[in-house]
Amino acid sequence: MEVDRADGRTPNQRRPVVCTRGILHRAHGSASWAQGDTKVIAAVYGPKSGTRKNENPEKACIEVIWKPKTGQSGKPEREYEMVMKKTLQSICLLNVHPNTTTSIIIQVVNDDGALLPCAINAACAALVDAGTPLKHLAVAVCCCMSENGQILLDPSKIEEQKVKAFVYLVFPNSIASVLPEGSLRPGGEVTELGILTSVTHGVMAVDDYFSCLKLGRPAAAELSDFLRNSLKLKAGSDPSKAG
Amino acid sequence: MEVKHSSSSPSSFIDQLVVPGDVILDLSSMSNQTIKLGGGLRQDGDSISVMKAGQLRFTKPNKYWVESSHKRYVPSAGDNVLGVVVDTKPENFLVDIKGPALAFLPVLAFEGGTRRNIPKFEVGTLLYVRVVNANTGMNPELSCMDANGKAGEYGVLKEGYMFESSTGLSRTLLSSPPCPVLEALGKKLSFEIAVGINGRFWVNASQPSTVILVGNAIQKSESLSVVQQKIYLEKLLKSIQ
Fold first, then answer.
1. How far does the CA of residue B48 sit from the closest CA of chain A (Å)?
2. How many CB pairs under 8 A join A and B?
3. How many helical (H) and strand (E) elements, i.e. helices and strands, does chain A have?
4. Does residue A232 contact residue B17 with C-beta atoms inside 8 Å?
5. What's the pLDDT at A181?
6. How far is Cα B17 from Cα B19, in angstroms, rounded to an integer?
7. What does the pLDDT read at residue A238?
8. Chain A: closest CA distance from residue B7 (Å)
9. Per 3-state DSSP, what percentage of chain B is helix, strand, and coil (rounded to 5)?
10. A98 to chain B nearest CA, in Å?
11. Domains and CATH numbers, chain B
């Protein structure tokens, strides 16, 4: 039983993605990421010397500032900042430049659903543009569960407001490796199947959550390939588009 | 998320785009070899993985590094950079070299420098200096002398104008044989140029218009291909006749 989505997509179909890097002249790294009509610009400044007051000076500090499209920054923005800070801290290598601060500023240009995944993707592209040392990249998708139990990928704002529950998932990117198939990392875990961040809103059953994970992983792998291809183009030149 | 596994030879990634997270070398299969890692690579147990996105480069016998171009600079010993004085302390000048931390230039690190003839630099003075050491977690140390203690070309750059570029453009400008932009400009115009590997270059000429022309031409050439550069420079130099 297929649900007709308002914009004619199948349940498994993402909106077209456009990513441009090096768009801001003064920022050390910048990127804009648009998924359909949702668009976010990320700017990275740093590393700059000195850390915030209560942060460990033996590590680099990551600071996120979220600027909404209109109005003042309030509690929702603080929550986005906190989620993004934790996600980005887990992908950055913090011991390469100790006692420095890297600031990431997120400006929402338009919000049409899946805002936080779009922002995380933009921030990751901006960090690559700035040359921040990273363990790997982060790729974010959004899955939601509609009233009749169907899982939809990359909902728009209207769909997000109608559904029972939605989840933002962040995965590490697909890596190209010379190691033989199935080798383990020293920690004993196979990082290929890892998950970096998961934020859920609403109520869903555990099985539905796992179905969302199953739907989200291949979508993240596609986005990861798209990000790799878009890094081949020079910064500031033609934006890269994908289906 | 998938992992794409290629054949076990590391040469499959050389001169290709690599992305943070890619594993390019498996050390467990090569014993008794010394590998030298340059910028953008790190050792993760038994594998070498990528930290920055860029082209993977290799020179024999054993040097690997990732080549990328950014607005900020990662200090490394032996580099010649352009720094701007931001503060003076009793023992050091604090100099900004576009790195993660301010660099220290000892007040005695000048040829024939003694306590009696410490140079007086104002805030904003442009210096051509050499990075002596740049250890993790410490401020880089600079010097206005070369390794033998001679001043050479190091010191204050008076007059002229400093332009910002990326580290990739600086490397292009410093490459030998000289890059096409500098050759073409040098044939028609006379100017003096100092290039810092940290993404800054300084141009001086008898006329301010020449300085502006050279600076703009170099900055514009970064985004053009070699053929486009030739066409652009031909048009530019023709128009100033």
1. 10
2. 139
3. 4, 11
4. yes
5. 55
6. 7
7. 40
8. 6
9. 25, 30, 45
10. 5
11. 10-67 (2.40.50.100), 80-156 (2.40.50.140), 161-239 (3.30.1370.10)
Q: Could you say which residues of chain A have pLDDT below 70? A: 1-3, 180-193, 234-243
CA neighbor of B97 nearest in space, from B106, B105, B89, B109? B105
Report how far residue B109's alpha carbon sits from residue B118's, in angstroms, rounded to the nearest whole number: 9
Name the nearest CA neighbour of B91 among B76, B82, B104: B104
The answer to whether A110 and A38 have CB atoms below 8 angstroms apart is yes
Tokens of B171: 């490397």
pLDDT given for residue A226 in this prediction: 93
What is the CATH class of A17-242?
A: alpha beta
Alpha helices in chain B (DSSP H): 167-174, 180-188, 208-221, 226-239
CB contact (8 A) between residue B5 and residue A179: yes
B157's CB contacts (< 8 A; 6+ apart) are B82, B126, B127, B128, B194, B202, B204
Question: Of B95, B97, B65, B66, which is closest to residue B80 (Cα–Cα)?
Answer: B97
Cα angle B166, A25, B124 (rounded to 5 degrees) comes to 65
Residues of B in contact with A236 (CB under 8 A): 223
